[in-house]
């Protein structure tokens, strides 16, 4: 494979040698701090001036990674992020010590329905219609409520503002991986429309393990096939009022057994109105619908039997008032009706209504100091749970190029309907048992950061400490009766859990076309014990203490008809140990301390721009052919170097 890759890369690089005199590079190389962000305060703020440290993954970053979905993107760019696997290779995210139930993922500020093993379906979060992504780490419950105790990942989609844009693209890779995409943008006058379509497919493939594994290993890695359609229509009734309607459909099929493929579907829709009441007042209202289903298709009978459905209907109001001195008052309220059908639920169906109201005041004291305070009230009908959540953040700018940010935020997470009422035979291993008496998690987050920017350079260092009381997790398995064949795995509140971490990032963009970024994350996760001080088996891998991501690329335009971008990405994760059962089907055999070694993955990419319309991409993922000795559930499921070839055509630029 390396031989073919070398030949192909040589052929692709050859045209650059015959191109004439280089043209001046017109791409801006300064650090982009004029980006407008909204997630940290729910108000539009320049990235430079936001009082809450916000990480932005720009449109250019997304294009350079050539990521298919959110999972691919995050693990390539951010340190401290690792995706591992649970039962049946369901994907689980560890984001600096926080899992999927504590990192709230939004699309244009809206929640997502459906989860598997506590995480959203990352395959439905494609990058085709994404403008940028905003990430706020640390407790954000005062603005976003439950599930935001570890932070928020907000995916901001593109606006349809151009008269006509049409892009078609395709990518091929190992294991019959195929990716096809179409993006159509039209607009005229007050109307704008954006339609995207994606088709992704990967075959199942086998992997080989070393001898004498000490816990369960994977022999087959399952691929899948997905369709994803998204439609967004905007209409400006006037210069003060804009309406946005959206709809989406997602379908995924995964074949573990030929007779009964697993199917996953999602249908989403929404309507949002943005109204500028006056020079100082803005009002936003939104309705969102999201339904995520799981089913098993029986090929013989041709019956598609649904066994899971999560339906969410939500209404949101958000009001801003700006004062003459730069202060901003924000107030909002949300209502969510949550319906869950699951054949493994006690009673099959459960419903819950939740309501919240919050207020925030952004006080610009002077040119040096800014303080933001927020308070939120949440109520959940199931169990009549309510909570008040505060947050306080400050930004200090002693000199123009330096921002120091610090703050405190309380995190809050109410137990889900699944955690309270589940009763599930987990593949014959144990019975996952809900607990209707679960208490809500409450966490305390303290953070401190410094950011310095000058000319082509940006440096950021940050630290945080999170302490969680009554963390919701699964406890130690037990036999309810001596005659039980399978043990029970109960949900419970754990006595103590904390995460201490720090990050450092350095990035630069030079006028010669060179861009570089180096980011390091330290995570010290103190795993919990139950109320009786018993160690709890962790089915998910703990956070690795040290992780590093690196990126460098060089971009140059040679004349009018040829451009080149050469990039190299790397990520390093330190080793980690995890307590796991020797045999999940017979827990009497006890546990082993499984060692997951440190590893490094690199990706080389080459993008050639041919004329104005065509881009040809070649990438070598896992450049140095890393393969785990044992494919345990929590190791990277890669079986070596992957050659990927892609083609993108902007049809509108041809004519």
From TrEMBL:
<dbReference type="GO" id="GO:0015344">
    <property type="term" value="F:siderophore uptake transmembrane transporter activity"/>
</dbReference>
<dbReference type="Pfam" id="PF07715">
    <property type="entry name" value="Plug"/>
</dbReference>
<comment type="similarity">
    <text>Belongs to the TonB-dependent receptor family.</text>
</comment>
<keyword id="KW-0812">Transmembrane</keyword>
<dbReference type="InterPro" id="IPR000531">
    <property type="entry name" value="Beta-barrel_TonB"/>
</dbReference>
<dbReference type="InterPro" id="IPR012910">
    <property type="entry name" value="Plug_dom"/>
</dbReference>
<keyword id="KW-0798">TonB box</keyword>
<protein>
    <submittedName>
        <fullName>TonB-dependent receptor</fullName>
    </submittedName>
</protein>
<feature type="domain" description="TonB-dependent receptor plug">
    <location>
        <begin position="49"/>
        <end position="152"/>
    </location>
</feature>
<keyword id="KW-0813">Transport</keyword>
<keyword id="KW-0472">Membrane</keyword>
<keyword id="KW-1134">Transmembrane beta strand</keyword>
<feature type="domain" description="TonB-dependent receptor-like beta-barrel">
    <location>
        <begin position="201"/>
        <end position="623"/>
    </location>
</feature>
<dbReference type="GO" id="GO:0044718">
    <property type="term" value="P:siderophore transmembrane transport"/>
</dbReference>
<dbReference type="InterPro" id="IPR037066">
    <property type="entry name" value="Plug_dom_sf"/>
</dbReference>
<dbReference type="Pfam" id="PF00593">
    <property type="entry name" value="TonB_dep_Rec_b-barrel"/>
</dbReference>
<keyword id="KW-0998">Cell outer membrane</keyword>
<dbReference type="InterPro" id="IPR039426">
    <property type="entry name" value="TonB-dep_rcpt-like"/>
</dbReference>
<keyword id="KW-0675">Receptor</keyword>
<feature type="signal peptide">
    <location>
        <begin position="1"/>
        <end position="24"/>
    </location>
</feature>
<dbReference type="InterPro" id="IPR036942">
    <property type="entry name" value="Beta-barrel_TonB_sf"/>
</dbReference>
<keyword id="KW-0732">Signal</keyword>
<dbReference type="GO" id="GO:0009279">
    <property type="term" value="C:cell outer membrane"/>
</dbReference>
